[in-house]
Each structure stands twice: as structure tokens, then as C-alpha cells.
Amino acid sequence: MAYVFIADDFTGASDTLATLARAGLKARLFRDLPAPADLVGLDAWGIATQARALDRTPMIALAQRLGKGIAAFSPDFLHLKICSTFDSSPGTGNFVLMAEILSDALGIADIAVIGGQPSLGRHAIFGTLFARGPDGRVHRIDRHPVMSIHPVTPMHEADMLHHLEALGLHGLNLVSRGMTGNAFPRYYDALDQSDVEAAGHDLQPSTNRCLVIGASSVAEAWLASRGYTATVLPPDLPVNNGPILAFAGSRSSLTTAQIAAAESYGRLPINPADMIAGGSRLADAHDWAAERLARRENCIIFLTADHAGPITPADLAEASAEFVVRLVAKARPGALVVAGGDTSSAIVDRLAPAWLDFAGMLCPGVPILGSDGPAGELPLALKGGQMGALDFFDRARAILQGGKPKTRNGVR
């Protein structure tokens, strides 16, 4: 298998899936290790995990299990997909720890990192990471209005060599723009798309197997080095008039503004404490949404920014997933839109589709996914907290209700 990727959440995994599929590869996303029969006809495949929210002990167990399973497929190129803002900490979502365990399990000695993703407004220069903010400006990551105050893994270091060393990746060699890498491990600057492509060409001649850490820019680099330049668009989607259920576990300022700007949805806030506690308030919220979906009205349910006290992000994501999956089973919406990486991962895991396929795009970084699991055919869109313009939810409504996603890419 030419291209295999492991993602630390479902939002990022769906973006890499879309990047590969739009280049013309037959690609598919799984929730866990696939069987060999599941890979027949595929050019690329990936596994989406909840690693972004894990502390060290479950991270080690997950990486060891996946490493053992993937070693049987002996991929030439393994992509560890992480958030384009690189937010992680030694104790939570430590992707370097995961990379080291995977590389040991697969016998991969060469590790590289591609900084940022210019196609999404993430830029790396002189080893320093910058990201576009909800204000449209580009900020150094440790001064970013959202990522510098992330509730779980705030970014307090913009020097990526220092940040990655703190996570456990030592001795990184910086590959500046226009330069050729020498010893591994390497870190590639990526100010613009030409730098991404150059990194791909620099890595391509290596005769050794390689593990590359980064966002979907890793897929862009790999594709460019192998001559995939055209974008393959999915056909028009057939008409779908079903109501849209949107759930926002992300409490970023951008997602909050997008919810406030949504004109074609009913909106209902839920306090995180009520989501965890259950009880009558949560039951009322469930009934509120079910009644509106039955009337074919779109609705957004969102977690408020109230202080969650001792509630952990993982517990909140799991409680949210249970709420959403029960609502999907009762109301059968025409499509599901989820905002928030941890929340998306927990919800998709509970929905339990056998796999996910690319079915179209809502906006850069947010594809439409075709899924077919116990809940039936349910088009999904998984949005990271920093993705989309102010009109994201109304745009999602226009696209999703203008056509029902179906399996694309020649894979079924």
C-alpha cells in the first residue's frame, strides 16, 4: 500500500482523506485497523483515532496496538496526521510519543515533520509557526487569539524545534525553504505551497521507509512528488431535502461567531454541566431538537462556554456523543454537521460506520463524508474549531440540502 495515514482526530482525518481523493486516489477512512479484504481496490487508506484527547497511558496502548497491526501491511510511507496548528502537550495528545512507538513497531528509522499547511493559512518559516486567525490576520501561534488559549493544549511556544523537543523529538534538523535535507529527523519549513511540494520531492528519493508528521500538507507533498496535480471533483450530488442536525462541541470564538451568524437554523445552548449530568434539562433539549427535526427544520445544539469545573474534555465529548447518537437514532436527520475535533471523534466512534468515503467539499478543510453504518446512510461534515468562514453553517445547509452525498471515488 503506497499511502497509509493515522490521524489523531476525525476532523483532520477527513481533510487528509479529501486531499487524497480529490487527487484521484481511491481512498477510504476507517475507525480502526481494517481487514485485508477491506483494502481491495484502494490506493490509500487511513485510521482516525481519538489520540488528540488521550493522556500518556492510553496513548501508548493505542500506538502499540496500531503499530503492531499496521506492521503487517508494511507501508512504504506512513503519515501521522496531526492538527495544522501542532497543538499538543507532553501529557495530552502527545503525537511525538505516538510517532516514536509507531516507528519502532514498523522498523522505520527516518522521521520527518512538515510544518504548517499553507493551503489552510498555516505557515512555517525559520522553524516558527504562524496561523491565520478568525480575524483574518496571520498570528504567531503563541499569540494566536484562539490557539494560545486553547482549553486543553494551549500553544505557548512558536519555535517548532523547541516545541517538538519538549514533546520528545530530539535532534531535529531544520530544512529551510529551498534547501535539501540531510540527516533525519528533519523539520521542513513551509511558507507557501511551493515549499510543501519541495519537501515532497526531497523526501521522495529516499530508499528507506519514512514516517512523516504533519497536517494534510504531508499528503499534498506526497502527491506533488508523484505527479498528482489535477483536482478530481465529485459529480453533482442528488437532491436531499432532509433536515440538518448540527452539534457544536467546539467553544472557539470562531465557532461561536458562526453559530450566531447561522440564519437557517434553530439554536439551542446546553451548559456542559447539564450535558454531563443528564436529567430533565438534557431531556428537554433532546425533545426540542427531535420536534424540530420532525418538522424538517434545521437545528444547531451547542455547548456554552460556561466553566465546566472538574469535567474532562474526554468525558464531555463522550456525553455529547451519547446525546447526539440517541437523537440521530430517533429523529433520522438528513445530514449531521459536527464542530469540534474531540467531539467529532467521539460521535463518529459511537455512530460506528464501517468506513467513511469522500463525497464532496463544504469549504477548505471540511469535506462531506459518505457513511453507511447502523444509523443508515448519513452524510457527515466534521469541522475543526478554526475552520470555515462566518457563514459556515448556512453554506453547509445550502450544499447538503442541495444534494445528498453518496460514495465517490469508485470505492464502495
Automatic annotation (TrEMBL):
<dbReference type="InterPro" id="IPR031475">
    <property type="entry name" value="NBD_C"/>
</dbReference>
<keyword id="KW-0418">Kinase</keyword>
<keyword id="KW-0547">Nucleotide-binding</keyword>
<keyword id="KW-0808">Transferase</keyword>
<dbReference type="Pfam" id="PF07005">
    <property type="entry name" value="SBD_N"/>
</dbReference>
<protein>
    <submittedName>
        <fullName>Four-carbon acid sugar kinase family protein</fullName>
    </submittedName>
</protein>
<dbReference type="GO" id="GO:0005524">
    <property type="term" value="F:ATP binding"/>
</dbReference>
<feature type="domain" description="Four-carbon acid sugar kinase nucleotide binding">
    <location>
        <begin position="246"/>
        <end position="393"/>
    </location>
</feature>
<dbReference type="InterPro" id="IPR042213">
    <property type="entry name" value="NBD_C_sf"/>
</dbReference>
<dbReference type="InterPro" id="IPR037051">
    <property type="entry name" value="4-carb_acid_sugar_kinase_N_sf"/>
</dbReference>
<keyword id="KW-0119">Carbohydrate metabolism</keyword>
<dbReference type="Pfam" id="PF17042">
    <property type="entry name" value="NBD_C"/>
</dbReference>
<comment type="similarity">
    <text>Belongs to the four-carbon acid sugar kinase family.</text>
</comment>
<dbReference type="InterPro" id="IPR010737">
    <property type="entry name" value="4-carb_acid_sugar_kinase_N"/>
</dbReference>
<feature type="domain" description="Four-carbon acid sugar kinase N-terminal">
    <location>
        <begin position="4"/>
        <end position="221"/>
    </location>
</feature>
<dbReference type="GO" id="GO:0016301">
    <property type="term" value="F:kinase activity"/>
</dbReference>
<keyword id="KW-0067">ATP-binding</keyword>
